[in-house]
Specification:
six-stranded mixed β-sheet; 240 residues; five-stranded antiparallel β-sheet; 30% strand; alpha+beta
């Protein structure tokens, strides 16, 4: 068997193929932001902050009938095993774009014409699947900011390791595995807002990975709901 999956079908960290890493969420962690959230997804540690709606600068970029959503995903220099250049990389710019596109369908932007809503996602520690965790944290922060929303966006990935479809790959599995498929969904609306694929699946494997990632997203969504609900009862932290 591959070193990623042992003879008992368990992965390096002891998880089954369909098992999520431990997840912790906390809402309202930053006083100076309009909304904020912190998530630990396995060894990922990610902070999300939201500012706005506020006036657009420069003003000519404003849209008369809705708000514009700005999103920045950034990995801190100490977030990986080797020091990362603090300047935005092409990967970070791409992930910023896909996260913005994953979040936009959740927001009622027409309620805030001629304004901008800014989302900042800081990866403090990275361990694979950070874009999905970033989507989930950012959606929590938007809800915490009181932005009008139709649904929360919940993210989770599936992939293929040692020829087997598996849920929620960590960094080692992502690098050494055969495929990775990040997914974000709007659970109540039944919509997919993020779907990417790196690697190769057969049609059967794709369907299996999609359904596995979707189930993972639903579990993330339940934790998001609990984190938001419990904040108002003096408990902003939820673990799984």
């Amino acid at each position: 068997m591959s070193n990623l999956v042992n003879s008992k079908g368990l992965r390096q960290d002891g998880r089954k193929l369909n098992e999520l890493r431990p997840i912790k969420m906390e809402v309202g962690v930053l006083e100076n932001a309009d909304g904020s959230a912190y998530i630990e997804f396995g060894k990922n540690k990610i902070m999300a902050a939201v500012y706005g709606p506020k006036d657009v600068h420069p003003k000519h970029m404003s849209v008369p009938d809705r708000a514009i959503l700005r999103c920045r995903y950034h990995m801190t220099p100490f977030s990986t095993d080797t020091r990362k250049n603090p300047a935005p990389s092409r990967r970070e710019i791409e992930i910023s774009k896909v996260i913005r596109e994953a979040l936009e369908p959740t927001l009622i932007l027409t309620d805030y014409p001629r304004t901008a809503i800014a989302v900042y996602i800081e990866v403090l520690q990275s361990d694979g699947g950070s874009r999905c965790a970033g989507v989930s944290a950012a959606s929590l922060a938007l809800a915490d900011a009181g932005i009008n929303m139709t649904d929360l966006a919940a993210g989770c990935a599936a992939g293929k390791i040692a020829g087997k479809v598996a849920l929620d790959l960590d960094d080692t599995e992502d690098k050494e595995g055969d495929a990775d498929m990040p997914l974000a969904i709007l659970p109540n609306l039944g919509k997919v807002t993020l779907l990417q694929l790196d690697g190769k699946f057969t049609r059967k494997e794709f369907e299996q990975a999609f359904n596995l990632a979707k189930d993972g997203c639903m579990k993330v969504y339940e934790l998001q709901r609990k984190a938001l609900t419990e904040k108002y009862f003096g408990k902003g932290e939820v673990e799984a």
